[in-house]
Amino acid sequence: MALCVACNGDKPQHDTPTPDDKVEGAFHFTDAIASQRALGVSITPEDPNMEYVILLAQKKYFVLNEIDSRKKLLDDDLAYISDLAKQYNMSIRDFLTEMNWLCKGEREGYSATGLYPDTEYVVYCYGVEFTDEGLNATTEVCYDVINTAGPVAKEAEFDIVCTVDGNLVDVSIDPNGYDGYYYYYLIPNTWREYIPEGETLDITHREMLSNITFDRFNQWINIDGTPVEEFCIKGEHIHSERVEPNTSYMVAVFAVSDDTTPLLCSTPSVKYFTSGDFAKTSLKLDIKVTDITPYSANLNLRPSNNNDIYTCIFLAVSQLPLVDNDYQLMKALVGGFQPSEFTGPIKNEYLGPLMPNTEYVVLAFGIEGNMPTTDLYQVRFTSAEAVEGTTQITDIKLIKLFDTNEIIALDPSYRAKLGDCECVAIVEATTNEPCDTLYFWWYEEWMKVEYSEEAFLEDLLMYPYANNPEIMDMYYSMSPDDLFFFGGIAEDENGNLGDIYYGDSFLLSEDMVSPAEEFFQYVDTDEEETEPTTSSVRVVGIRR
To answer: Rounded distance, CA 165 to CA 171, Å?
Structure first.
């Protein structure tokens, strides 16, 4: 959100665009208070019948964005508000009202939360009138500058020694008698928080470090529930890491406060190092893809040892990131796909679902801390041409619908399976010939238009088929227009698929529910193998 000092018309500011203290006129500010993460202030307009907006910004915002006039402020505000209103498909007036930014009369105890500690914020107001183009300001801009509380400062100076071997680095930290918690960063020269060696760590860079640290700690402590001692350090410490090759780094170490959410509270100690070339391990990976069909294949991968960690991913060649070399490709795969990590061999791993006559690639490489440790190994293959199957789904019917709460009331053990859904349906799929391999599911009606046939096929094949009853989530229609349909496909004895079946649309309503006692006759059955039939009963719903 934009902000500038109060002025009349488009007259530039005097010496600096930075607001200082308080500017009043059409508005008066009283009872300003602040904590580390919140502030409050009361606002009284001179005209109690005037509509006005209340907005908030960090003091540095308009400095960085060179907002030094009333016109620039209003243009910035209008662009910001208009964009958000459009995103929510609302008029500007309705959006400002919904956000509680549009006021009339005294605003006692205006408050803002989720703020950064030890940061200057500016609460500002101006009268408005609405036009076809958006809104116009009818008064000068008035504001109050409020500083959130910061931590108690601590004196701490850290000795840092960096030992580099290729792109492997050991960072040794000695707190020199400081016995509290501290934290550290290895900051590459690609981060905005990086300060070239020889330059001073000024208040702006310290604020950057403080803010990213606060965001991290707030997430870990207050959202994830991680205790401080799991990520903050006491005493001497050695950190070992594989970093980007041939890159300059700044190590920043600083004390943190004793607050519930610790804050940066000392001048950071810094040290610099430059990494060397990519240091590879001796791990080798042998990849083989076999049993290639139109819709699946098998993967076998043998590493040269069973101790080193590696990652493996398969995807369509068309999905490969566009990069300049193998190292960049490995980094892009880790960052974009977050693939699983393995040790030891992979044996007869299912690859699917595939689309027919499509080129795929299996990629594998050693990994340590999201960094590659080996060359890139890859095998490309093309899925087989599809042959139309002889088995077709001819109908999919909803046989019974049961309410989840009623089922759980009779048998609480179903709470773990059904606790997130509203209802459960019994669905019967019929085929033109005996079949024991069916894929079918229910979808929202709009997907018939928005989803391609390939997208439906991929989704249907994404999950294993089942002949025996399954328990999955469903939910009731929210309105008469909230319709669903069944889609499915059958596989014949030769592994070939028929055409995708698209059923008629239907509602799921509470008045369709059968007595919950009847549900158990569908699930409390002997799990004996049966001969393929032209129908298969399954308990289905929406996939989690």
So the answer is: 12
Topology classification of domain 285-382: Immunoglobulin-like (2.60.40)
Q: What is the pLDDT of residues 432-450, one digit of tens each?
A: 998 888 898 889 999 998 9
- Sign of the Cα torsion 221, 178, 238, 205 reads positive
100 contact partners, CB below 8 Å, separation of at least 6: none
Choose which CATH entry (2.60.40, 2.60.120, 3.30.70, 3.30.1490) describes domain 159-274.
Answer: 2.60.40
Hey, what amino acid is at 181? Y
E-strand spans in 327-422? 341-342, 346-351, 359-368, 371-372, 377-382, 393-403
224-279 per-position pLDDT tens digit: 999 999 999 999 999 999 999 999 999 999 999 998 889 999 999 999 999 999 99
Look up residue 391 and give its two tokens. 């088995």
CATH architecture of the domain with range 22-147: Sandwich (2.60)
The string of DSSP letters for 71-119 reads HHHHHHHHHHHHHHHHHTT--HHHHHHHTT-EEES-EEEEEE-SPPTT-
DSSP 524: S
**Both tokens assigned to 513:** 């529910």
For residue 353, cis peptide bond before it (omega within 30 degrees of 0)? yes
